[in-house]
Amino acid sequence: MYPDHAPHVPVQRAVEVHQPTPYPPVAPAPAPIVPVQPSAVPAVASIVLPDGRVVTGYAIEPARPEPVAVKPAVSRTAVNVALGGVGFLAVCGGLLLLTSFIAALTAFITQLIILAAVIFGGWIAVQLFSASGHQSGGTTVNIRRAVIKRNKFYG
Questions:
Q1: Running DSSP on this structure, what letter comes out for residue 140?
Q2: CA atoms within 13 A on the CB side of 10
Q3: Which of 43, 78, 91, 148 could form a disulfide bond with 153, CB atoms 3.0-4.6 angstroms apart?
Q4: d(CA 69, CA 16)
């Protein structure tokens, strides 16, 4: 990647040095002071110390701590995991119901096809075996008289 180490002479270049010129600092113009009356005169408190000295001064309200943010009873991560699990179970249940519905629909269509075949087959059987008038060459059996026309047996 790098060429072999070859001796070379450094190049001499003229260098100019520039010194930075500092800018004078800009002082903001002083705002005019306007005397303002306080909206309420603070109360002056006097305290008598045990040794008899009296200390007088303004009452200072104690610093109130900032309210602590109330943490939820259950962490957000646990809620997100639970909601994800509920969603996953809902999808699985929906797929199971869809599969069951498709299987039931398939069974219903199969039963309709079988019912149509039975009805159509019965109609064909009725057409073939119905006694629609006297047919010559058909087999007639009368059991009481023992008459069989085809075989010419007359009992």
A1: -
A2: 3
A3: 148
A4: 62
| 53 or 36, greater pLDDT | 53
Burial (CB count within 10 angstroms: exposed 0-12, middle 13-18, buried 19+), residue 148: middle
pTM over 0.70: no
59 in Cβ contact with 41 (< 8 Å) = no
Alpha-carbon span 17 to 120, nearest angstrom: 111
CB 55 within 8 A of CB 47: yes
Dist CA 44 CA 56 (whole Å):
7
DSSP 63-95: PPPPPPPPPPSS-HHHHHHHHHHHHHHHHHHHH
